[in-house]
Amino acid sequence: MRYLSVLLLSLLPLLAQAVEVGERLAPWTLLDQFDQAYSLDDQTRTLLVARGMDGAKLVKEALQDRPKGYLEARHTVFVADIQRMPALIAKMFAIPAMRDYNYRVLLDRDARVATRYAGAEDKVLWLQLDNGRLVAQQEYATAAALREALEKAPH
Topology of 25-152 in CATH? Predict the structure, then answer.
């Protein structure tokens, strides 16, 4: 019985509805590393989602040496799924370190946003939006490829 319960719980993420091209993304609001709220709106053109630490590191490397406001100028927001990070580590070390970043990190502490968008744990998911609708999606496995895509993004 215990085995069956574990199996069913492990399959739950597969049952989540993945957003399809042409669909409007459901609204959400998250706090950033400064506890400032951000709500997804129709002005957002690109949504970057890191579902694990490896993806977040790719974003950090891709944005290294980029000026403050770089993502905002491209109407891009970055969501980091930190729900698996122990709360004490997040509060004492990780989030204070993020305050030194020159970009905004929207923190998905309860996995209520990042899990809406299917993607690999070790990659960065790029969702291209037009007035809140998904028009394309792609995953990036290297910081160089992500940086190149960001450079080409309209601003």
Answer: Glutaredoxin (3.40.30)
